[in-house]
Specification:
The structure is a homodimer. By secondary structure, chain A is α/β, with parallel strands linked by helices. Chain A has helices at 19-31, 43-51, 54-59, 75-79, 86-95, 108-119, 154-171, 193-204, 217-221, 232-258, 261-269, 271-281, 307-322, 325-336, 341-348, and strands at residues 5-10, 35-41, 60-64, 101-104, 129-136, 139-144, 178-182, 210-215, 227-229, 289-292, 297-300. An eleven-stranded mixed beta sheet of chain A has the order 3-2-1-4-11-10-5-6-9-7-8, with helices on both faces. Chain A has 15 helices and eleven strands. In chain A, α1 (19-31) crosses α13. In chain A, β5 and β6 form a beta hairpin. Helix content of chain A is 49%, strand content 17%.
Chain lengths: 350, 350
């Protein structure tokens, strides 16, 4: 990857847009040296925000549109805005080769539908998934799907396992990532049909992944495996439960420490250590979920994130681009036999 | 409720049985003044354990059987042991009126299948559920189902909502508990068919519950509602993710505090506060999931629990019995119209 990375931004997506999008881009611009932004949205609102950050203003091209995809909009309705909404235009910039990747904090269903329609899925992949990584007891763990596919059959789960392992290899630099299938028990007879069938395929097929079998919910944070594979329903719930529980624990800890002078003094003394915990478990640091299985880089930021979190989502996109993430996926899929070589060459030579 | 409470125990259920069962019963006997135990299992192994605790030995009747339900056993196979396994005999004691409630740390699926078969479900309830309560930001929250029913239709979810509200009223003494349906988004169009249909029924039917609509995974620990309703698959995953994340957070905190002399001193000073956090979030304190919808008290302990956790499961059973939990459920179901009055009288007069 030579030269500057070009990121297109959905200026109007997310609960606190456009403010956090612009502020997040400004924060990202401070630490990422060679990024240019294509920012889509309402110019009357975006221009004054961008102009508050001279460094950002110098690397940002603003493209005006008044249309935006709302959180309430269904995927089908959102798709009809593909050529005019800030989200659709931002994805379109990637499809047209004007940008190397897109970041949006908007409606997940709409973003996935449009990204699939405009960027297309990789050959061999039926349905793209949403993946992210976060800290666990043994390091970082990748989990997918996080909500792109509420219902999944066994084939989809097997594809997620492969894509998740590729993600772990390329983004987390794990040589030989372990993969587990989320279930309600580790015994072979437990679970629904999809996980039982996927388990059988993952055990028997000669896939270049280290499959560890079923894991239960408490195995996620324990870091039982490097890649947790599940359907979009369970992944969404699990990820949000992790976030909610971490927030609850922080709240209980703060309450307990502040409720006595002795606790307050202890907290003061231990402040560097407590800040380390806060930093280590800050969900905003891990904001930025990757759409895997698409022929282009598309990163979804948490809808309710702040500027710091949005900046991290931009950072994720830039890392995926500079590390050649999609090329890595394609090469791995060829090796596995999911992609014929010719198709890869066609895709790569695009 | 007059006199002593009689609890039957599956002496051979759980990963660390029979030791933790006997030690747990001994611990429970210390704090619960008027309990008698009927203990089922291998006498050669149980007798020496019981004899180590004179107080326990004085209130325990041992009933010998060599058969036990294993963790690997399917429900159908377990059912065939109903008349001879420690689990089956312990449930049978409740069915026969010899015990007021049963506690087991054994195989959940087997326990549910046998309890349903031997105790029967309450009229109006299609499928019993597993419920528990745990601390959240706003107090205690009830969640169900936790794994009895991996797949649930809308009717089952509606019944869980009613039983959960009754649980909250009778066990947590909440006058007007709020109920939410776990989903992957709060927008009405999100989720699978079952939650969408259940949401419609809960909104429209004149049920005596305060229905708050959908909640997401992060709303559980935030205490967004008093009762979280979900299918057994999602509830099992959510509960275990909560446990795993709490354990991870405690690990990160300890690591950070111990990694510097300043952190260690702070931790020493804040020890009472940190112990408060540990106590408040100790999952063993909330061990003991209730089977709701059955015509008898049946409490499932976590299979991997220690004696302290098992003692808590016994405490839960004793509380449910002394508070007349099942009578409360029946009365509420009559009021709602789920149970005709005559049936209640027949059940109550049994």
């Amino acid at each position: 990857m030579n030269g500057r990375v070009r990121i297109s931004l959905d200026g109007m997506g997310g609960d606190k847009s456009p403010d956090i999008v612009v502020e997040g881009a400004a924060q990202a611009a401070e630490t990422l040296p060679a990024v240019d932004f294509l920012l889509f949205g309402d110019e009357a609102r975006l221009r004054p925000l961008v102009d508050r950050f001279p460094r950002l203003a110098g690397i940002t091209t603003l493209r005006h549109t008044t249309e935006a995809v709302t959180n309430e909009m269904r995927a089908a309705a959102a798709l009809r805005t593909a050529r005019k909404s800030s989200m659709g235009l931002a994805i379109g910039a990637v499809a047209a080769g004007e940008a190397d990747g897109v970041v949006s904090a908007g409606n997940t269903g709409a973003l996935m539908a449009m990204a699939k329609f405009m960027l297309k899925t990789l050959p061999g992949i039926d349905r793209p998934a949403i993946a992210t990584h976060f800290p666990t007891k043994t390091g970082l763990t990748v989990m997918l799907d996080l909500g792109a596919n509420v219902e999944c059959d066994a084939n989809m789960l097997v594809q997620f396992a492969i894509m998740g392992a590729v993600f772990a290899r390329n983004v987390l630099s794990l040589e030989n990532p372990t993969v587990g299938l989320l279930n309600v028990g580790v015994e072979g007879y437990k679970g629904n049909d999809a996980v039982k069938k996927a388990d059988a395929v993952l055990r028997e097929a000669a896939l270049p992944i280290t499959y560890k079998g079923f894991i239960e919910g408490d195995g996620i944070a324990a870091g039982a495996v490097d890649v947790v594979v599940t359907d979009g329903w369970s992944g969404n719930i699990a990820l949000k439960v992790i976030e909610g529980t971490a927030r609850f624990y922080a709240h209980v800890l703060k309450d307990a420490l502040m409720s006595s002078p002795r606790g307050q003094m202890g907290a003061l003394l231990a402040r560097p250590a407590l800040n380390k915990v806060k930093h280590h478990t800050d969900p905003r640091r891990y904001n930025g979920a990757m759409f895997v299985g698409l022929n282009g880089i598309c990163v979804k930021s948490h809808g309710g994130t702040d500027a710091f979190g949005f900046a991290n989502a931009i950072r994720v996109a830039v890392e995926l681009i500079t590390h050649g993430f999609n090329e890595g996926i394609k090469q791995d899929l060829v090796q596995i036999g999911f992609l014929p070589n010719s198709q890869t060459r066609a895709v790569a030579g695009k």
